[in-house]
Amino acid sequence: MKIAVITGASSGIGRETARQMADKGYKVYDLSRSDKPQEGVTHIACDVTRRETIDAAIQQIAQADGRIDVLVLCAGMGVAGSIEFTKEEEMQRQFDVNTYGPIRVVQAALPLMRRQAIVNGKERGRIVFVSSMAAVFGIPFQAMYSATKAAINSFAFSLKNELKAYQLVVSCVQPGDVKTGFGAARRTDLAGSDVYPNMQAAIQQMEHDEENGLTAASCAKQVVKACTTKCPSLYYTSDFLSDLECLGSRLLPTWLATKVVGMMYHC
Questions:
Q1: Integer CA distances (angstroms), 96 to 104, 133, 224, 229, in order
Q2: Of 32, 131, 132, 146, which one is the catalytic site residue?
């Protein structure tokens, strides 16, 4: 039985990914702070901002199963507000969870994944990051979140080449708008609304798009595809609209891309 380890699998895209991987016959571990039981999924308490809990979780899996075939980095959180008025602690928290968190987990898992045997002539394992289309086009008044995901995209690009010699495969899934509990948990600070009168309209637009976005189950299918397809790509999107946005990022001049995003978010 193959082993899948998923951070943030207690809710949203991570939870749906865990369910779908379990349905495919994987033994699935959920590494998260909250224990929300799901059939076929084993919870291990883990906070991606605390390295000691990550190390303990990976050690527990290594002792029980001796390998990690798929590692999915899905834990994340969001901060919304103006760049100028975002508090230092909120900036640090955003990067600590969304960028340093996945990096910590990868660092802890790599020694095991590098050493494990190749099964049936296939690669030693896969590492799949859940990023965002906000990494491709930074969202106004969600700049910190956008920056953390852009960092993950770049990290995945570098990691793919570093691990090629060890037959470890790296992918990055970039969902567009998804309807989950993520938006409700977002930390929104409207400080500076008098300076940036369009901020509230921009944030409301973002929330509206999420409410009318893909389901978590639909998005998780793309994550599972990255985990299981025979020849995985480095980058995946979640839907046709996201495909068009990625195409636009390559074809549109920067001034036009910036203008289009600004118009979308009332800037």
A1: 10, 20, 25, 31
A2: 131
Report the candidate in 95, 109, 111, 106 with the shortest Cα–Cα distance to residue 49.
Answer: 95
Q: Which of 91, 93, 56 is nearest to 76 (CA)?
A: 93
Say if CB 46 and CB 23 are below 8 A apart: no
**Annotated catalytic residue within 2, 82, 132, 145:** 145
Q: Is 164 part of the annotated catalytic residue set?
A: no
Q: Is 149 known to be catalytic?
A: yes
Strands 178-179 and 214-215: parallel
Provide the 3-class DSSP secondary structure of residue 152: helix
- Secondary structure of residue 141 in the 3-state scheme: coil
The C-alpha angle with vertex 189 and arms to 95 and 209, in degrees rounded to 5, equals 80
- End-to-end Cα distance, the chain: 51
Q: Which H/E stretch holds residue 247?
A: helix 240-251
pTM: 0.92
pLDDT tens-digit series, residues 184-214: 668 888 898 999 999 998 888 888 888 887 8
Q: Catalytic annotation on 10?
A: yes
Catalytic residue among 2, 27, 149, 242: 149
Ranges assigned E (strand) in 98-204: 125-130, 168-174, 178-179, 187-188
Tokens representing 101? 């968190």
Looking at residue 34, the DSSP 8-state letter turns out to be S
Catalytic residue among 2, 10, 26, 236: 10
> Which two tokens mark 31?
């590494």
Least Cα distance to 246 among 237, 233, 256, 234 occurs for: 237
Q: Is 11 a residue of the active site?
A: no
Residue-wise pLDDT for 14-54, tens only, equals 999 999 999 999 999 999 998 999 999 999 999 999 999 99
